[in-house]
Amino acid sequence: MKVTEYFEKANGQTLISFEVLPPMKGGSMQAIFDTLDPLMEFKPPFIDVTYHREEFVYKKRPSGYYEKTSIRKRPGTVGICAAIMHRYGVDAVPHLICGGFTTEDTENALIDLNFLNIKNVLAIRGDARKFEGQFVPEDGGHHYALDLIRQIADMNKGKYLDDNIENGEKTDFCIGIAGYPEKHYESPNLDLDLHYTKAKVDAGANYIVTQMFFDNKYYFDFVKRCREAGIEIPIVPGLKPLTKLHQITSIPRLFHVDLPTELVSELLKASSPEARTQVGIEWCIAQSRELKASGAPCMHYYTMGDTDTIRKIVKAVY
Ligand code: FAD
Prior knowledge:
- It contains 11 helices and 10 strands.
- The protein is α/β, with parallel strands linked by helices.
- It has one domain: TIM Barrel (Alpha-Beta Barrel), CATH 3.20.20.220.
- It has an 8-stranded parallel β-barrel, surrounded by 6 helices. Strands 3-4 form a two-stranded antiparallel sheet.
- Helix 5 runs parallel beside helix 6, helix 9 packs antiparallel against helix 10 and helix 10 packs across helix 11.
- The protein is globular, with a radius of gyration of 20 Å.
- The structure holds flavin-adenine dinucleotide (FAD).
- The site of flavin-adenine dinucleotide has 23 residues, from strand 5, strand 6, helix 5, helix 6 and strand 8.
């Protein structure tokens, strides 16, 4: 079923969804099951699986020179989606990125997804590769998520890249996109960011999942400004509990979000790792409760392998 159909069927109830990362290459599918098994009692109608572009690594050779090679550290998104659907009977939402894909690669990936009866995709651009500073598309690939969405929308109309294909099968993908309550880090301001978000909606996006945020004010303002900009689709808050000291600096650096003063000072005051985890759990519970009470369509938890923490939060909220 499509994600948006779940929202419609929920009749105002706030659903739950989880996001998982593929294991590092060489890891096993069991890692995903170990993350998800304890969370399935909360009946998430859909589960997202992230996609990771290849990265450049530099390997020192016996000559002393460094060789630049490219590897994909976390392959397997589509296989994981199929395994999740098979094991749990829920929908899986693969993330599909522009980076590393030509438009033909994208078309072929969408054909695979369609054949697997995967009805949803989260269409995003992907970040810059390490050491590149800015996003560089594949030759013959998309520069922006907007172009990717247009390609998916074309396939939903039966339009493939090859003009010779007549009466091509119309896919029926429900398209999710990313949204940034604190604006995307490359955007000069939220207005321009929302301008492009609106363009993605006009191109066929059906719902938004937000970047993580730690102050609900950002989400409420974002929803208000989206509505004022004519963006009417459901906006799902993305939540991540902050439970470790190093995250005080790594989360802002990696995700370009602010951390509230009160949260940071509570984390700094905590006298042990366990006490710190408890601070993060309680903060996320409070955020979740307020978002749920405000009628958010779904709570989207970034699990990042931390099942125990997510479980405690969801148990307290639902
Ligand atoms: P875009 O919509 O293309 O926007 C990128 C920037 O360009 C923005 O500043 C925007 O304002 C601007 N812009 C947009 N369209 C245009 C245009 N036509 N002309 C000029 N400027 C434009 N990354 C991964 O690699 N894998 C994942 O699985 C993944 N999952 C994610 C899930 C969620 C819920 C979120 C919020 C992010 C996720 N990301 C993931 C990160 C995402 O790829 C990055 O944030 C990326 O930098 C931007 O992606 P986007 O789809 O928002 O890009």
